[in-house]
Amino acid sequence: MKDLTLVELGEMMEKARKDARVRFGKVVSREIVAEKIGTDPHSIYKWEKGVQHPGFLNVVKFCDFLGITLDDLLGVKKNGCYA
Fold it and tell me: Is the whole model's pTM more than 0.70, yes or no?
C-alpha cells in the first residue's frame, strides 16, 4: 500500500463532492461545501486540485458533510485494501 499524493487525495475529494449529487438531489458546489465546513471555496478548489493540503480535520468535516466515511473517500474496502 502506497501513500496518497495530494493530487490523488484531491481527485478523490472532487469525485466524492460530485457523487454527492445523488444523495442531495442537486449539485453540491464548492461554495456549499465551504460554507458548511467553515472554509472558503478557493480552499476547496486548491484541495481538489492537489495544490494545498486540506488538513485532517477539514477532511473529516468534508466527509461528515457529504455523509461518507474516510474509508469511503479513500476507497478502503472492509478487508482494509484500497479499491
Answer: yes
